[in-house]
Amino acid sequence: MSKDLAELSLTELKKLQRKIETELQKRERTSRSQLLKSMEKLAQEAGYSLSEVLGKNEASTAVTAPKEKKAGKPARKKAVKDKKPSVIKFRNPANPDQSWTGHGRKPNWVVEHLQNDGALEALAVSNPTT
Predict the structure, then answer these.
(1) Which residues form a coiled coil (predicted)?
(2) What is d(CA 107, CA 90) in angstroms, rounded to the nearest whole number?
(3) Which residues, 6 or more positions from 100, have their beta carbon under 8 angstroms from its beta carbon?
(4) How many CB atoms lie within 10 A of CB 87?
(5) C-alpha span between 111 and 130 (Å, rounded)
(6) 3-state secondary structure string across the chain
(7) Residue 1: pLDDT band with limits 50, 70, 90
(8) d(Cα 53, Cα 113) in Å, to the nearest integer?
């Protein structure tokens, strides 16, 4: 714009403000979407899904906007569940740092092992640990 902001009328300033807010929202959505795609790609390259990396509950909250609280109603407290630690049941013999609990999507190294006529039992950990 060639005009100085001080020279704009109130109506013109409000119109400009709406345009700026719309553009900011658009850019935030685009930026968030690109970040999500990058994170999914990195997780996939490591043999995981994004939800496996973040944990099921965290992945869904990471990509959605927080819900607004309704006025006049107190927030409910969520029940805390005692969650047992996951037990590692399978380990990659080529890279012992890679393990799998047997729950969720199979990591790429497990899929490749099975495609090469390998048995899942061959990857089993003799003494499962957390």
Answers:
(1) 6-33
(2) 10
(3) 88, 89, 90, 91, 106, 107, 110, 123
(4) 13
(5) 22
(6) CCCCHHHCCHHHHHHHHHHHHHHHHHHHHHHHHHHHHHHHHHHHHCCCCHHHHHCHHHHHHHHCCCCCCCCCCCCCCCCCCCCCCCCEEEECCCCCCCEECCCCCCCHHHHHHHHCCCCHHHHEEEEEEC
(7) very low
(8) 21
Question: pLDDT for 9-59, tens place per residue?
Answer: 999 999 999 999 999 999 999 999 999 999 999 988 988 888 888 886 544
Tokens of 6: 């001080």
- Residue 99 structure tokens: 């393990």
Question: Tokens 């006529």 — which residue?
Answer: 117
Burial of 1 (0-12, 13-18, 19+ CB in 10 A): exposed
Phi then psi for residue 54, to 5 deg, are -85, -15
